[in-house]
């Protein structure tokens, strides 16, 4: 069965801290994505990666960076967390080169920045 | 740039009643269209998708959606709602010209009355 796991379900950090959100998929998918989900705004794409060590900016990359050193793992990094980064973060993965291929989602990490 | 609008933020229906969730998109060419569902505390799960062919698409859990090019719509329907359908529903459009990116609508939260 397809599986995307995220390292934490809930996380509380302080302003200015460096935060790492980890995502692992076991499906050998080429593509991995990080979204943030906010009420009324749906999901907005932060970054995505279509291969190891490759990354592309999404719609809202400011304040975030990513790392993909291995095919199965995609990390989202908040270099200096701010309160406006309090949100739900969802990771997803998909196979191949077509946008028609299903994205499989992890359960999400709810991050609170105090 | 593509965009997706879900006009209804909240919808409440009685169990056993029919359901229609609205989705309008803006996209220059023939889009890839998706409906995802997010149950409480869960990641997103694909209900159905459309690219070409029959404009009425069947999905999982008894859902269907109809693509209407003239109205730029892809509305989700179910003839008889069950209490377990209470969730948040997201419409999305995909674009091969922008990698495998999806653009999501703001979501519609469905509540089911007994």
Number of strands of chain A: 11
Which structural class matches the secondary elements of chain A? mainly beta
What is the approximate shape of chain B? globular
| Fraction of residues in H or I helices of chain B | under 10%
Report the uncertain regions of chain B: none
Main sheet record of chain A: 7 strands, mixed
Main beta sheet of chain B: 6 strands, mixed
Biggest interface between protein chains, with counts per chain? Answer: A-B, 28 and 28 residues
H/E series of chain B: EEEEEEEEEEEEE
Strand % of chain A is: over 45%
Number of helices of chain B: 0
Gyration radius over CA of chain A: 13 Å
Q: Which descriptor suits the 3D outline of chain A?
A: globular
Number of strands of chain B: 13
- Average predicted confidence as pLDDT of chain B: 92
Q: Mean pLDDT of chain A, rounded to whole units?
A: 94
Number of helices of chain A: 0
Which series of helices and strands of chain A comes N to C?
Answer: EEEEEEEEEEE
Account of the 3D structure:
Chain A has strands at about 5, 10-15, 20-25, 30-40, 40-50, 55, 65-70, 75-80, 85-95, 105, 110-114. By secondary structure, chain A is mostly beta strands. In chain A, strands 2, 4, 5, 6, 9, 10 and 11 form a seven-stranded mixed β-sheet that branches. Chain A has a four-stranded antiparallel β-sheet with strand order 1-3-8-7, with no helix packed on it. In chain A, strand 7 (about 65-70) and strand 8 form a beta hairpin. Chain A is globular. By secondary structure, chain B is mainly beta. Chain B is built from no helices and 13 strands. Chain B has strands spanning about 5, 10-15, 20, 25, 30-40, 45-50, 55-60, 65-70, 75-80, 85-95, 95-100, 100-105, 110-114. In chain B, strands 2, 5, 6, 10, 12 and 13 form a six-stranded mixed β-sheet that branches. Classes of the chains: A mainly beta (about 110), B mainly beta (about 110).
